[in-house]
Amino acid sequence: MREKNKHYAVIKSASYNAQAANSSSISLSRLFFFFFLYFFFFVLFNFRVTSPSVAGSPRKTITVGEIPQQHKQFGVLIGILTCPDKYDRRHFLRLVYGIQSSSPSADIDVKFVFCNLTKPEQRAFVALEILRFDDIIILNCTENMNNGKTYTYFSSLPRILPRRYDYVMKADDDVFLRLAPLALSLEPLPRLDLYYGFVIPCASMNPFVEYMSGMGFLLSWDLVEWIGISKIPQNDSYGPEDKLVGKWLKMGNKAKNRFSNKPAMYDYPGTNGRCSHELIPETVAVHRLKRWDQWLHVLEFFNVTEELKHSNLYHL
Ligand SMILES: *[C@@H]1O[C@H](CO)[C@@H](O)[C@H](O)[C@H]1NC(C)=O
Ligand SMILES: *[C@@H]1O[C@H](CO)[C@@H](O)[C@H](O)[C@H]1NC(C)=O
Ligand SMILES: *[C@@H]1O[C@H](CO)[C@@H](O)[C@H](O)[C@H]1NC(C)=O
Ligand SMILES: *[C@@H]1O[C@H](CO)[C@@H](O)[C@H](O)[C@H]1NC(C)=O
C-alpha cells in the first residue's frame, strides 16, 4: 500500500516524509528516492506555472495545511457529493485531483461528501480511507436523491469545518474539474455574495436568470453561512438541489455577484443538448462523465498523464 501510494504520499504531505524518515525500516536509498521525488515535483510545478509572480511554494490538492499558505490569496473547498459505496470512483478521483497543481493564488481542498453509513463494511472501509486520506465528510442525513443533502452540506459546514474558506463548491462525482483554470477564473471575482457556475438554462448567458447547474457551483463563505442560519432554505430543502439553491438566493435577495463560466464549463459532447459542446483547451469543468471511454477521452485531451517520466520500472 505504501509502495503504491508513494507518489501520492510525496505530493500529499511533507510530514509523511518526516514520518518515513523516522521509521527504521526505510533504507537510505529509499529516503533518497523520496527526496528526489519531492525535488522533482518542485521543479515540475515551477515549470508549469506561467504566472510571473511565482513566489509561492507548490501546493497540491486533497491536503490540509502542511505547506505555508502565506502566498495564497484565497481558499476553496470542493465537496464532491457521492455515496459511501462508490469506492472505485473515489480512488479514481483522488488520482485525478491528487496530480493536479492548483495555482499560486489558491489553496484548494477536495473532499468527498456523503450521508450516514448504513452497512458494517462501510464503517471499516471508509474508516481506512479516512485514516489514509482524511478527505471525507459524513453528514447527518440519509442517502437519497434530492432529499436535502445539498442543504445539509452547506448548512453544516460552518459548524463542522475546522477553518473557513473563501469559497465552497459543490461538485458531482461525474465531473472533471481543472483546478488551475478554476482558480484563475476566481482570482478577479468578488470574495463576497458570489454565486458561480454554469447557468441553467443551457443556452443562457445571463447568470441572474435562474440557477447554476449541479455539475459544480460555488458559493462565497458568507452565503454558506447564510444558508446555515436562514429560515428560507431550512423550510425549502426538498427537490432538485441545484434549482433550490437558486430559489433560496432569489428569495433571500442574495448573490448580487454572479458568474456563469461558459464556455469553460459544460456537459460532455453529445450528452445533453445545448449544455454540451466539444472539449476546449480553456476548460474548467466537463460534466456527465459516466463511462470510462469518456474519462479516457478527457484525460487524453488535457494531456493529464504527459508528465510521466521514462523509467526502467515500467513501460506503457
Ligand atoms: C441528526 O439528524 C437527526 C434527524 O434529522 C436529528 O434528530 C439529530 O438531532 C441530528 N444529530 C445531530 C448530531 O445533529
Ligand atoms: C446518522 O448517524 C448518527 C450517528 O450514528 C445518528 O445519530 C443520526 O441520527 C443519523 N442521522 C440520520 C438522518 O439517520
Ligand atoms: C415554507 O414553505 C412553504 C412552501 O414553500 C410555504 O407555504 C410556507 O409559507 C413557508 N413557511 C415559512 C415559515 O417560510
Ligand atoms: C496537449 O498536448 C498537445 C501536444 O503537445 C498540444 O498540441 C495540445 O494543445 C495539448 N492540449 C491541451 C488542452 O493543453
UniProtKB/TrEMBL annotation:
Cofactor: Mn(2+)
Enzyme Commission number: 2.4.1.-
One cellular component (GO) term of this entry: Golgi membrane
Pfam families recorded: Galactosyl_T
Membrane topology: Single-pass type II membrane protein
Entry GO MF terms: hexosyltransferase activity
Principal location listed in the UniProt entry: Golgi
TM ranges: 31-49
Name of the protein in its database record: Hexosyltransferase
